[in-house]
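Quick one: structure for this chain?
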Amino acid sequence: MLGGLLGTIVMEFTNTLIYKAKKTEVTYPQITGQFFFSPKRVNRKENFILGQILHFGVGTFFGLPFMVHAFFESNRKGSSSNERAFRGDVYLGNIVRGWSEAKAI
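Got it. Here's what it folds into:
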């Protein structure tokens, strides 16, 4: 779970930097806040904080299987922990993106 939380913190940090550089229009808390609220209401402070909490919760939850895998397969040759962490971020990003696109249809 710690790995998922750390991965989510890194995702938040990089997404915030990209958002401030005006390279993207939304942040992850805005995307996850759309699970509960319409896109017009997401930018309110209380709704943004709820989206932030949900994003950290989902990131921590999805990090759990990868940490269990890393614990049991730590002596195995092959993919490194960085590679598994990257895969976890890609999986979670695709899940969130797929959910938001499916909701927009």
